[in-house]
Amino acid sequence: MNATIVKFEALSATEELWDGLFRCLDEISREADPEEPLLPREKRRALTVSAEADPDNRTYRFLVFPEDNPREAAGCAVVSVETPHSPSYETNKHVARLLQLFIYQKYRRKGLGALLLKRVVEELAAKEPAVTEFLSPVILEPGARFLDSRGGTVSLETAENRLYLNDVDWVKVEAWAAGSERRNPGTTIMTVSIIPQEDIEDYSAAYTETINQQPLGDVSLHIRYTPEQIRFNEQKNLEQGLSETTIYTKESDGKVSGLTEVVYLKEAGHKITQMMTGVREAYRGRGLGKLVKARMLLHIRKEYPCVRYLVTGNADTNASMLGINRQLGFKKHHPVKLYKLKIK
Questions:
Q1: Where are the beta strands (DSSP E) in the chain?
Q2: What is the CATH number of domain 160-336?
Q3: Among residues 324, 237, 330, which one has the least CA distance to residue 47?
Q4: How far apart are CA 146 and CA 140, in angstroms?
Q5: Binning pLDDT at 50, 70 and 90, where does residue 216 land?
Q6: Hey, do 3-131 and 160-336 end up sharing a CATH topology, with the first three levels equal?
Q7: Is residue 159 within 8 Å of 313, Cβ to Cβ?
Q8: For residue 1, what is the DSSP state?
Q9: How far is residue 101 from each of residues 17, 77, 242, measured CA to CA in Å?
């Protein structure tokens, strides 16, 4: 099928292109999770525009319009790369994150996905010549078949896991918190929305260490999280209306030993998202993972009583975190395959 591919620029896109992008993203959401409420378009537009100011990441978006229906977007592609400004650029510049490559069901098997992928590869060859491979999280089976047909390989099997708060054994959670605190009498528990200046250097080091402990299969990535990025993201969250809470443990010598973080958006008030949770290797075996997870659940119960569930992502091979989550009652909601696709 012949088609026109249009590059979507968030800061200058026409209303017609915004409508095409949203209709495509809405269709992705409906197919992947029909019961999940959609954010208002105005909010999603504001979040998309705001993200353009991130100095560490650059996003490319494309819409494909079929020749026989040139006013209806038949699909979209979204790809993100780290910029030279990112402290992780030198180790990660070969990787582009193919966040979306989607074709409407009625337009599938007509070659439009291949056209979109070709356009993305051409764009990156011109603008991001260091990129040699895509990483792409895949939920829908047609996406897996498409990447399989192009030589993509599954690097990691992961999942979106959910914990419905009505199902939580709060007696267990309270016992975990109390028991872990007794085991660690010299440890201070911090609950903050802004990382204190006195802790920001070691917190960024702890975050860098723990995020790089996560299983990545055969993916070659190393993430470095700096104090400057922390402050940028804190400010961005404030501007976007995102409420972030971080709970971390601090040893008597001032070292950050374990951490967990959640973000909440009032327009999606039915859920709260748990991002990073980790314990530095030197402090493992003391129940700090259980402590920060339990304390965060108690915080959510108190501060966000309308939240229905907590959502997080875990690799299927992350046995230690999955063990904690399963004991708390997390259940797999979406299996996700992380594909790697070589492009050079």
A1: 3-8, 57-66, 75-82, 95-103, 133-138, 153-164, 188-192, 242-250, 256-265, 271-279, 309-315, 331-342
A2: 3.40.630.30
A3: 237
A4: 10
A5: confident
A6: yes
A7: yes
A8: -
A9: 17, 4, 27
CB 314 within 8 A of CB 159: yes
Check pLDDT > 80 for residue 70. Answer: no
What proportion of the chain, given as a percentage, has pLDDT over 70?
A: 100
79, 59 contact by CB (below 8 A): yes
Q: Which CATH superfamily, name and number, covers 3-131? A: Gcn5-related N-acetyltransferase (GNAT) (3.40.630.30)
pLDDT, tens digit (0-9, with 9 covering 90-100), for 222-249: 999 999 999 999 999 999 999 999 999 9
The residue ranges of every structural domain in the chain are: 3-131, 160-336
Instruction: State pTM to two decimals.
Output: 0.93
How far is Cα 53 from Cα 176, in angstroms, rounded to an integer? 41
Cα–Cα distance measured from residue 325 to residue 117, given in angstroms and rounded to the nearest whole number: 37
Q: Which residue has the higher pLDDT, 217 or 342?
A: 342
Q: Which helix (H) or strand (E) holds 123?
A: helix 112-127
Residue-wise pLDDT tens digits, 34-63 = 999 999 999 999 999 999 999 999 999 999
Burial class (CB in 10 A: 0-12, 13-18, 19+), 227: middle
Cα dist from 241 to 43, 52, 86, 117, 206, whole Å: 10, 16, 24, 34, 26
- 203 has pLDDT over 80: yes
